[in-house]
Amino acid sequence: MSSPNLDFETSLLETYRSVIGVDEVGRGALAGPVAVGAFSLMPALLDGMPTSLRDSKLVPEKKRAALALEVAAWGQGVVGYSSVEVIESSGINRALQLAGLEALKSLELAGAVILLDGSHNWLGDCGADVVVRVKADRDCGSVSAGAITAKVARDQLMVNLSQHYPDYGWEGNKGYSSASHISALQRLGPSEHHRKSWLTKILSSDQALF
After folding, report:
1. Collapsing DSSP states into helix, strand and coil, what is residue 111?
2. H or E element, residue 149
3. How far apart are CA 119 and CA 131, in angstroms?
4. What DSSP state is assigned to residue 69?
5. What is the CA 141 to chain-centroid distance, rounded?
């Protein structure tokens, strides 16, 4: 399992006061909000990164909550959300941007640089310089920290929602397109928390599509 480090952040901190690692969670889900996690890294925190930190997609679910607590003890991580209504009305890219901007409201941007996972700047003009890096969620500790913070928070939100909508299995699939989730959608139709415009093929009578 690949381990992140703080080498790239250390180089950025030669120029900036802080590095804010940012990543999204829930972009590809069929239900629930999209979440963006941000973690503020300052020079004083460079020696404190949890040794178990990994890209959230590589951490077994049973270990994520404990890792998120380690990250919270290390420094400040915050999460912003965009609702299903925003995703449906404005599109996923705008929803990601709004969730990211919501998260950044809680952090000090003066003298900061945003380190964003991916290949393009989906945050847009956010009040700070933005550096984009592919696989930053895997390789850069601040982005891994933002990602696990968002992942655990969004997962818990979906577990809570599943208590009111138990037939969709969100406590297990977290709103993503598992076979059981798709089967429930085809049997019951969508709930108010589903991204209905994403479900055209799933709700089609042509079951061969799946």
Report:
1. coil
2. helix 141-162
3. 10
4. H
5. 15
